[in-house]
Specification:
The protein has 742 residues and is of the alpha+beta class. The protein is built from 18 helices and 17 strands. The relative contact order is 0.11.
Length: 742
């Protein structure tokens, strides 16, 4: 690159920095929030119009397929070859949510493929060949085309695309990955009140501080990207790659978007932003490795003259210990905030945010451990003791994997990290002059040691976070529990009655209510309410069940308490059936997955009652093991005991408290810290619907899919909270007749 370009790149980097800082800290331009809202709605509209175009193109391609027409024309006798299903499936896009159904002349489904959505009724509103059917959390955009030549074989081909309404995550923008940068704002979709239009878009109101932060980050993004690219190019031109990479990383701090889910959702409590989200962690880890590579390749000495040699060695030794602290600290923080991110195969499997966060933490730890090794080499060379130091470091770090969190175990972990850094000091110090094989071995040892230290810290952090949760559960008094039972439902009703959540029924009375309970549960829940053992049932005014949702599969003992709830949907009432302290093995993984829990979410707390001899009482006692002797002796002697238990092939972290003539234990199931590969992914749920529909013809019209103009959240025949419903509490002596909807 010509040297004359360096000043220009410097000016561009400076301009990018100035523009990003002004966007983040300066006064907001007039109308910036409105323009941001219009831009988000415009992005969502473009994404939906593209889906409509693809629906129409897929339908045209299928209708013109000679093989499909041949099968349809020969199917008057009701014989449908299996090749028909494969023909339909091969024509669909590969993303989730696409489906196709072939209907005969009577409206009965004869073949289908993909994930067909809700088919429109005969009286449904249409815009040309398009129609829309709404549930609470999702809606179906359908394109209908006639297929077949003769009256005996003529049918209808319906290509569908299931899309979110935005009342729960994901929304339209999150469902279309190429629709722009992520955002904490939420785009809502509802039925349009304009004749000839199917849907209208609106932006859900949010907290003013959240709106302002989103606007500022969006305004700073182009400037930060410009400055980052210019800084990278300038670093390459000046042969200072590390400086350019660090500058670019700091500039991106001003503009990295935030979201509620996915790789841009906060994962660690970091005020600097360097380790806040999985994307931030990944970028920081990459930059840390670049810096370490630059330091190792430079071959610079950390001290010069003989007079300062002793002081320099002492300072280098202290700095080496400080650098060795970082991998242990990162592991502790990651284990507490994201229990399963650094667990087993979490570095390679799971949603994108899990490998990103795990790889970023390991990369950052590797960089700091390499720096510690380089500083240790400056202080004192390991020489022939390297093997012994490495073995001692591995032993101490391995012990920390299974230790109980304490100051002593943390000190042992740090000591193990320091010894590992010292054992690698010789290889790291000669990295610049080594051959390729020696460098590869050094890198492998460095990354392996850093992963081992960070994993041990994560193991301690997981236990520490688990113990904090168990302590809160065990220390909650009966008065606190009663207050939660009384105040939790009232606070939940207040949360779901907020005007920012309207409309709950995006198509008014034409909305299918089967998923209303799930939407109410997700948008109203906090960390305390609803609890895992709760089951929300929505009924109409005649008592018929419209929808229900809960994450547990209760047994047949008929236990629980029912609480009446006021719902913000006219003509509905809610009943919350509470089952205190359900068994963890009653949890339904499919229903938990519907809540959108992050991959690093922890397991629920379970209560277990024991008699004075340590034998389990109540439900599931035949599957549970007796209290182990150490826990039983400690609980008898001190009134409180902590430890790990194995029951029915499951490992538990438990605290046991004496209570009356027996004991009460609180436990959280924990996976193996070494061999487990994280929580199992729930099995895929296949749609199973019996569509029936009769329709009339129509021509394709893409322009009528979206409503125009600004749309408010309260529109059409969607109304606000109803005053119906009253709260009542009663014991339920009979088995609960309501079950979570599949």
């Amino acid at each position: 690159m010509p040297r004359a370009a360096a000043p220009l790149l410097g000016l561009l980097a400076a301009a990018g920095l100035a523009g990003a800082v002004a966007a983040r800290l300066g006064p907001l331009p007039h109308g910036a929030e409105g323009r941001r809202a219009e831009g988000l709605e415009r992005r969502a509209a473009v994404a939906l119009e593209q889906d409509a175009e693809r629906l129409s193109a897929t339908s045209r391609r299928l209708v013109r397929d000679s093989a499909l027409l041949e099968i349809v024309e020969g199917g008057s006798g009701g014989v449908r070859p299996g090749r028909l299903f494969s023909l339909l499936g091969s024509a669909l896009p590969k993303e989730s949510g696409w489906g196709v159904v072939l209907l005969d002349r009577t409206g009965a489904a004869v073949a289908w493929a993909g994930e067909p959505g809700d088919l429109p009724a005969a009286a449904a509103r249409r815009s040309g060949s398009f129609s829309a059917t709404f549930r609470v959390t999702q809606w179906t955009l359908a394109h209908e085309s006639p297929v077949g030549r003769s009256p005996e074989t003529r049918g209808r081909l319906v290509v569908t695309r299931r899309l979110p309404t935005g009342i729960v995550r994901p929304d339209v923008l999150e469902g279309h990955f190429l629709a722009g940068a992520p955002t904490v704002r939420r785009v809502r979709v509802r039925a349009s009140a304009v004749p000839g239009r199917l849907v209208a878009l609106s932006l859900e109101p949010a907290n003013p501080a959240v709106v302002e932060e989103d606007v500022r980050r969006d305004g700073a993004r182009p400037w930060a990207l410009l400055g980052a690219l210019a800084a990278l190019a300038l670093g390459l031109a000046a042969r200072a790659r590390a400086t350019g990479v660090v500058t670019a990383r700091l500039l991106l701090l001003l503009a990295v978007p935030y979201a509620e889910t996915g790789p841009f959702a906060p994962i660690l409590p970091d005020v600097t932003g360097l380790l806040s989200t999985p994307i931030d962690i990944g970028l920081t880890g990459f930059v840390a490795l670049i810096l370490l590579r630059s330091v190792l390749a430079s071959g610079r000495e950390f001290y010069g003259g003989a007079a300062s040699r002793v002081a320099a060695r002492a300072a280098a030794g202290g700095a080496a210990v400080a650098a060795a602290l970082v991998p242990a600290y990162l592991g502790l923080a990651g284990g507490r905030s994201a229990p399963s991110v650094l667990l087993g195969l979490g570095l390679f499997t799971g949603p994108p945010e899990a490998p990103l966060a795990a790889a970023g933490l390991v990369a950052t730890s590797s960089a700091f451990l390499g720096l510690a090794a380089l500083l240790a080499a400056t202080a004192a060379r390991a020489g022939r003791t390297a093997l012994g130091l490495g073995a001692a470091g591995l032993a101490l770090t391995g012990w920390s994997f299974f230790a109980v969190p304490s100051e002593a175990s943390t000190a042992v972990l740090v000591l193990g990290s320091v010894l590992l850094a010292a054992s690698l000091s010789e290889r790291v110090s000669t990295f610049r002059t080594s051959d390729l094989l020696s460098r590869s071995v050094a890198v492998a040892l460095l990354v392996g040691a850093a992963a081992f230290v960070t994993g041990a810290g994560a193991s301690l952090g997981r236990v520490l976070g688990t113990d904090e949760r168990l302590e809160r559960a065990a220390s909650r008094s009966s008065l606190d529990r009663e207050r939660l039972d009384e105040e939790g439902p009232a606070a939940w009703e207040e949360r779901i009655a907020g005007e920012n959540l309207w409309p709950w029924t995006p198509a008014g009375s034409r909305t299918q209510m089967s998923d209303l309970a799930r939407a109410l549960w997700i948008r109203g829940r906090t960390g305390d309410f609803p609890e895992p053992g709760d089951l929300l049932t929505v009924r109409d005014e005649d008592g018929r069940v419209l929808s229900s949702f809960g994450t547990m599969r209760p047994g047949e003992e008929g236990r629980g308490t029912a609480i009446g709830l006021r719902l913000p949907v006219p003509g509905t009432v809610g009943v919350l059936t509470r089952v205190p302290w359900p068994d963890a093995d009653e949890e339904d993984p499919l229903l938990v997955a519907l809540l959108g829990e992050p991959t690093w979410a922890d397991r629920p707390v379970e209560r277990i009652d024991f008699d004075g001899a340590g034998r389990p009482l109540g439900r599931g006692r035949l599957e549970r093991s007796d209290l182990s002797e150490p826990l039983l002796i400690a609980a008898r002697r001190e009134g409180t005991a902590w430890g790990k238990e194995v029951s029915g092939g499951r490992r538990w972290r438990m605290t046991v408290r004496s209570a009356g003539s027996g004991f009460v234990g609180w436990g959280i199931e924990v996976p193996s810290p070494v061999l487990a590969s994280g929580p199992p992914s729930p099995p895929r749920r296949w749609p199973c619907r019996s569509p029936s529909w009769s329709s009339s013809g129509g021509t394709s019209s893409l322009s009528g899919v979206l409503g125009s103009g600004a749309a408010t959240a309260r529109g059409g025949d969607c109304s606000g909270p109803s005053g119906g419903g009253s709260r009542s509490r009663f014991s339920s002596p009979a088995p609960c007749p309501w079950r979570p909807a599949p």
